[in-house]
Amino acid sequence: MVTIKDVAKKTGVSISTASYAINDDPSISQKQKKRFLKSQEN
After folding, report:
1. Is 35 helix (H, G, I), strand (E, B) or coil?
2. CB atoms within 10 A of CB 36
3. Cα–Cα distance, 28 to 42 (Å, whole number)
4. Distance, CA of 25 to CA of 17 (rounded, Å)
5. Cα separation, 13 vs 5, whole angstroms
6. What is the per-residue pLDDT for 28?
7. Which 8-state DSSP code applies to residue 3?
8. Phi and psi (nearest 5°) for 41?
9. Ramachandran assignment for 2, one of left (phi > 0), alpha (psi -120 to 50 degrees), beta (any other)
């Protein structure tokens, strides 16, 4: 099973940032969120 830690490590962001991006939290910028989500497409 893939965890949030695995996703964060793969994309080079903190666990918090990965969580914020996945949950569409407004505390991170749209640019950062878009970059994170794009990295998950591959």
Report:
1. helix
2. 20
3. 22
4. 9
5. 10
6. 94
7. -
8. -70, -25
9. beta
Read off the pLDDT of residues 1-42 as tens digits, 9 standing for 90 and up: 989 999 999 989 999 999 999 999 999 999 999 888 888 876
- Report the distance separating Cα 26 and Cα 1, nearest Å: 27
- Classify residue 28 by its DSSP letter: S
pTM: 0.79
Locus of tokens 């950062």: 32
Cα atoms found within 13 Å of the Cα of residue 42, Cβ hemisphere only: 6
Name residues whose C-beta falls within 8 Å of residue 13's C-beta, 6 or more positions apart in sequence: 21, 36
For residue 12, what are its two tokens? 């080079």
Give exposure, 9-33, as e/b (b: 16+ Cβ within 10 Å).
eebebeeebbebbeeeeeebeeeeb
